[in-house]
Amino acid sequence: MHPLPGPVPPEPPFPTRPVAFVLHRLARRPLVHAGILALVLVAVAASVGAQYTMKLLVDALSGNAAEAATAALAGFLTLVAAENALWRTSGFLGANAILRVKKELRLDLFSHLSGHAPRFFAEHLSGALANRVTAAGDLLHGMLGALLWSILPPLADFCGAVIVLSTVDIRMAMVLAIAVAFIGGSLAWAGLRGRPHHERFARNAAAVNGELVDTLGNIWTVKAFGARMRERTRLATGLEAERSAQRKAWGWLETMRVFHDTCLCVAAGGILVWCLAKWRAGEVTAGDIVVVSALTFRILHGSKDLALALVGLSQQGAQLGDTLAVVGAPHDIPDIPTARGTPPRQGALSYREIGFAWPRRPRVFDRFELDVPAGQRVGLVGPSGAGKSTLVGLLQRLEDVQEGQVLVDGADVRAYTQDALRAAIAVVPQEIALFHRSVRENVRYGRPDATDAEVVAAARVARCEAFVDALPEGWDTVVGERGIKLSGGQRQRLAIARAVLKDAPILVFDEATSALDTESEQAIQEALEELMAGRTVLAVAHRLSTLVRFDRIVVLEGGLIVEDGSPWELRRRGGVFDAMCRRQVDGLLGDVHFLGRG
Hints:
By secondary structure, the chain is α/β, with parallel strands linked by helices. It is about 65% helix and about 10% strand. The chain contains 19 helices and 10 strands. It has a 6-stranded mixed beta sheet with strand order 6-7-8-3-9-10, sandwiched between helices. Helix 2 (about 30-60) packs antiparallel against helix 10 (about 285-325). The chain is elongated. About 35% of the residues are buried.
């Protein structure tokens, strides 16, 4: 069989550049977003039109034209009512559309995030990753809201004001346009100059949140070592760095506001003085003064909002880009395009001339070979670092070999999708991770469509019934984060029940009974005999008594097989495995003699 070509990490199913990402999200629901855009533009047009009808009203009143005044007033009221109705309609549509986009974004980010290899999660704090996914939704929400209600309206206002002012004096319209361009451009430039302050604040805030989640997740260790004040001091250091960064960012914004207010007074005052001089010269009407003053203040005030919105949009885009760069990174272990979605059924395993090394560590395997026929029970033993857990991880494609192949039922594991491959493998790890859910939900995680009777039957095999019945709410008892409300042995029994319920052709045990007392271990070993019958079993074990009934023992040292045979055959040889068994027995007897002397 020829090796499959190494899979090329595909790009994530969404752009990782902020602008392209936002456009991608908008394009997924083009009609509703186009509708909101149209409503906003028409609302702005109604607002500018209302200002113009106010000019007509003032001019009509000045000329004692009652009918014209009535018509202008009616037009003014109609446009004001239309403007409010349009804004509210766009708000209701936006609330539905943007919140839906926000939900879909989080789901897409979670789907991509959960596809990363375990190494990715070892390099990033889980709390920080969760915060990034949540923050990405809030950032997109803020960016879309800014575009639709903070950036687009002032731009449309500006265009409408220039048109209206052109009817009064084209030079005045040009001066206003230059003033707005200068003020807005200066604020945008200053805002971009202050962007590092905001980015530093965002990084510090994310780091503090990640540290806080990490500390709370290890609160038992904090208490065990009396480290509450030490952790408080550590958190205080992080919070001070966050406060300092936020103070600089806030101070920069206040400086920008002072600059804008100064420019507003100068520009608005100059235009109004100019307009008043033209009125005295009889070149403009009182209505012209009203519309010029209203639009000037509106546009100049809007220039600040526009500039700050653009700066905010830039900052949000930078934060979103940082999140997309981390969460949206290509997967280290992707599925190949031709991967099959049906899981293997027999469970025959083969490691063919595999080579593997962890990053920045010595090589673990070099041309390693191992065959496990379907239905055989194999125990992997050896010192720490021999490669036992690595073999198990390569089988599950938690990592990919750099050379050779891992085969299941004669097919390279890369020929299956990762979900299909892992559907054929039930795992009981040494470190049991349970969800903050009920006992029933945690066991049913092995097979979500299982009935309550099947869940109870699996728990009975794993000897869980007695302690579950004694829990305050029985099967509905919530076990706490990572199962903290249960003992280590109870968590391990639930993990075994979960594997029993999955009913997979391949079983992987990684110290599956390490947290059990001797009596419980014997009971579960008897139960596991029924579970293992007819299945391929790969078990990593340091407690060699758990492997007595296995078909075969493979002893590893330094990534090499030094012994391979049945337990009794290896004991008769008097080699490495026999020496390991003797050391465990001698250690146990030594403990017994010590206790006896006490």
